[in-house]
Sequence to fold (72 residues):
Amino acid sequence: MSELAVDRRAGTAPAPIASARELLPFALLAGLVLMLLVYFVGAEEGALSLIAGNGVHELVHDARHLLGFPCH
Ligand SMILES: [Zn+2]
Fold:
């Protein structure tokens, strides 16, 4: 038997990598980054545009269609 195999007979669960409290800041940061990404994919154009020009729109154009945001 391999040394990497888990011995289930011992009845011990593997220790968690981190607790939920330790993961919370990273989960919040990931959520914020994802919300910003969805903003730039879905709403970064016209009156809501933060960055002038069509560069961001063209960069994420395929993602807009993939996610079903109205485009053209
Ligand atoms: Zn389009």
Notes: The two ends are 60 Å apart (CA to CA). The mean pLDDT is 82.
